[in-house]
Amino acid sequence: MRTPGASRPESNSLAPAVRKCVFCDQPLGPGRVKFCSDKHRWADDSNARQALVRINKLFSRRELIQGSLATALMFALHLESRPDSPGARRSHTASVLHELDLLLSHRGPNDPAVRSFVRVQADAVRLAFEAEPSRNIEDCRQYVRALEILRDAGSENLEDTETLLQYARAAVKFYASHGDYLNSARSLQALANTYRLNQNERRGTRLTRYAWHILNEKFSRSNDAEILTIVHQSAFWDLRLAADTIGRPAAEEKCKQIIGLAESVNTPAIWIETHRELAGHFGKDGEREDESRHELQQLDKVRRENPGLTAYGNPTLLRPQIELLLGSGHKRDKDEGIHLIETGYLDLYKSDRHVYYHRQLVKWNRQHGLSLQLPSPAYASPILVHLPRCRE
Q: CA–CA separation, 389 vs 80, rounded Å?
């Protein structure tokens, strides 16, 4: 019996493997290592070289913000991963931006890993559009969406929120120039909050009022829940910032409107914001303490019934209760309020070191002679927590 394979010539088993060109799969000639010709060697890495050329051109432009190495690499990857056709490319970019929107709204920028990932990805999209400018309206809209995501991802450089203001202003300018009232108002409110991060309360209040005028006149009678959510957010910001100047009757009408909008939308998130704002508003008036406490009870109930909602912004939900206790005029209430500052609010701040919460703790520390040991803030972001992230 013959051993299987015994008839094969022994020399064949020792023959060297034929080496082929990695580009065209043809046998390599003498002296060739990977490519059969210089032409194929040049063609094989043309995409990578083109990406490097684009990066070099991009980063030679002084007006562009210099990115990190991670951003540069993501930029190159983004360029080379895009489909060739314009339509497919726009669909791909829209999908990337949508995923970043969801990540910010579900996880929040308080997570350093989320901030870093979102910022690098959105910056790659921004740089791609700036490297290859387009007049197509959809390309321009996607570019602005990338800027809005960068705005909301925030900054660890607390001495310089001007970059966030640049992103926020660009969004307002784009939507206003195209007569897009809804997104103009939405981006105006985001710009207002970015100014407040920059401690420009006066301008923040003024822009909030502009946003409210647009939304109230154009969209308050809408039947679209997403649009009404935007109107609701604008209404309570206007109430919060302008209640002392618009007079009690106007403030009362605004409260009724906020409740009506919440009833129309009827989601846990909108009721959380409604109860929080009304608790804070009523808590400023010593004659409405009971109403404020009722709103706080309703707020607690909605939160207990919906434990899966984002925890981002939790310090804002505790603040109305603290301010109500501090302002009640009773020593026991004041002691309880201070206890909540020193435990609950401080603990929430340590897990979410936003500059806004740090400023509030510093204010309470000074007003009430506390001895809080405060870690430095880690970031600043003007993100509007429960507001729809984008509206096509």
A: 27
